Structures are given as C-alpha cells and as structure tokens.
Amino acid sequence: MNLALRHWKEAATVILAARTRLKTATDCLKTREIPSPPDFTKSDLSPKPVFDYDVLLLKRSVKSGFMPNAYVFPGGLVDPSDFSNDWLETFKSFRHWPNFGLGFVKQAPETRPPIFATDRQKLGSLIPSAVALRICAVRETFEESGILLVVPKKEENNIAHCLNHPGDNNVSTSPTKLNELLDERELARWRSLVNENPFNFIRMCGELDCMPNIWAMHEWGNWLTPRGLETSRRYDTAFFICCLEDIPRTIQDEKEIVHFKWSTPSEVMQSFQARQLFLALPQIYELGRMSRFPQLQDLHSFARMRAQEGCERFLAVRLDSSDSRVFLLPDDELYPENADFSGEKGVILRTEKGFEQLQQESSALHRLVFFDLYTVTVQVSITPKYKHLSPIGGLSQPSSSRHKSQL
Which residues contact residue 128 at a Cβ distance below 8 angstroms, ignoring those fewer than 6 apart? Predict the structure, then answer.
C-alpha cells in the first residue's frame, strides 16, 4: 500500500462476466437466425439479447461518499492487509514464480502505470503490486457481493501445470468455475468478519485452505478519477476482468451496496439510455469495449491473451463546450500535453465551440461527450495501445447541433 500518495487513493476493481446459458450465436446459426453485433450509435437498440453472458453491476448507496446511486463494478480501496507479508504463507508454492505465477507483461517499464510499477519492497511489502491488487479486488468483491473468488490449495498442481504449459491443448482455457467451499451460514459469518477487519481475509484463506484466485483475473485497464466530478475523492484504480462459467450466488451488503444487477452489456446500456440507472464514465467505456464480444469464450480468450501486453493509464480531462461536457482521453487531439497525472492541480478546460465544430476540427478523437447525464456519445478514431479495443460507437446521439446541455 502506497501511503506516500497525496492526491490519489489506490483501489482495485474486477469486471465479472458470467455465462447465462442463453441462446448463443452458434445456436442462432442452427435456426438460421443470425444476430447482429450491438450498435450503440442507434437510439432504438433492440432489447433482444445476443450475448451469452451477463456482467455484474452493484448500485452504490445514496449515502455513499463516492458516486452515490451509480452502478459500478465490484471493488474498492486497497487495504494494508492486501500487501501483508502474511500472504507469503498462503502463496508459498508460488513464491519463486514471477509475480507468483502471473508472469510479467511486455509493456516497457517506463510506460507502466505507477500503480503496477511501484516497487513495493521499498514500502515494506514482499507482495508484488500485480498480486496485491488482485487480492484487493477479490476481497472487496466478497465484501460487497458475497462472491468468493478463491481456489482450493489442493488445486495447486493443476495451476502450476497450466502455468508451465500455456500452449498445451490439453490445458483448459475455459472461463473459471467457482468452488463452493462454504454453506450460506459460514459464508455470511466470514463475510461479516472480513468486513469488520480485512486482515480476517488472510485468516479465512488459511482456515479454509484456499487462495485468492489471482490467476483467473486478467489485467484490463487503469483509471484515475478526473477533476470536475461531484466528489472530492480521487482514486487510482486497477481494472481486472474475470470470466465465470456460471452466475454465482450474489448478495448485496446493504451498506455501501444496496442492489446488484446481472445483465448483458447491451441491456445495461439500454437501461442507462432509458435513464433507469446511472453509470460512471469508466463503466460506460469498458462496457462498450466488452460489447465487441457477444460470446463469453471470445471475451475470455481476448482478455487472457491481451493482458500480457499491459495497459494504459487513463486520466480524463474535462472540457466544457457551448453545448456539451467533453471528457478527453489520452491521444485525443485536444488532450493537454501537461495533463496533471500528479493529481495536485487538475484543470477544467473551456471553449465557446460546440459539439459539431469540435468534432469536425479534430482528426484524432478519443473522448466521451455528455449532453446530459444520460445522453452520451463515445468517439474514438485512434488506435488503442497494448492491443486493446475501442468501445463500440456512441450510446446516443444528439438530435441536432442545437442540443442544449443539461449538465
């Protein structure tokens, strides 16, 4: 845990996608019914599902100090327990593997996001960032939703075999199947204990003879909270993705989280557009990326292979125009060269130009344009770094250039 950070708080989140056993694209082909890829540039999105998986979103309490009422992916603040050296005993079979079996990414060290690149040994921890941040995401997911992303220690040999033979055709590359180690009563008891004291998560794994399943979680991205939101809290958040074979038992904590929702990416976007739920900027962007994969196996395979490349750090910079609020992302033509990644200052840019003029004058687009809290278009014309994908199109388009901002 990096206590030296002044303006950011480290956090970790996991995008959970789980198979629903709905009609898949293959099944549709058998009946001569071919689904079209979801197109979020249209306002009349078809409610018919084309995905064979759902994504978990948790609704934050109205009393929450950060993004109240928003639907977010499970996750939360890094705790000192996540970097505790007590985890060395839990992962002792993997201590001599690079990053405890996670390996190293290809990304050049000088471009690696600090949340991953920080030397934790200088901060007193022998737990690498890549491991501790995954532990954090697993723990927070358990606290918020009751979903326990762990693997029994008796499966250590199977994990080691998969790590030793990544190209072996006999090694399963399917989404993860969760192990139900506890009945509902014991699960609730441990969940309460971990909520009271995160160090109890280490104790729980010891008593249950299991490990946080860090190998099922693939590096996906890194988002910094931008200036210009209705909050003074700012987070440096590591994003992971984990694909599951089945939707697990899910229970909100009734504290920070008051509701949970398993839905396809297209259904979530439709609900957002219909003003039935509120999404934060990273959720809009990442669900748009996932929407390129109607089938869970394709999403899982892509995430698993792409994670080896590393990821880019996204700090959105707010630009208020005459008719919209624009959040610029790196490599956009208007993105400032001196963007404040320190978090110390941060500025809000302003222009008298409108949406259409800004769009016409920019050849490199990487931005989200908000006309109100629920009317958003995602514009990307750049090539994403680290073999990632751009989100699909816009969620909704303004009816004309005279669209008045309601922000």
Answer: 99, 100, 102, 120
Query: Does the reported pTM lie above 0.70?
Result: yes
pLDDT in tens, 372-400: 999 999 999 999 999 999 998 654 444 44
Strand partners, 328: 317, 367
What is the spatial distance between Cα 75 and Cα 176, in angstroms, rounded to a whole number?
19
Rounded-to-integer distance, Cα 284 and Cα 273, Å: 11
End-to-end CA distance of the chain: 36
CB-based contact 351:382 (threshold 8 Å): no
Return d(Cα 247, Cα 395) in angstroms, integer.
26
**Selection from 259, 386, 215, 247 nearest residue 314 by Cα:** 386
**Which amino acid is located at 78 in the chain?**
V
Residue 216 burial (CB < 10 Å; 0-12/13-18/19+)?
buried
Side-chain half-sphere CA neighbours of 233 within 13 A: 12
H/E stretch holding 317 reads strand 317-320
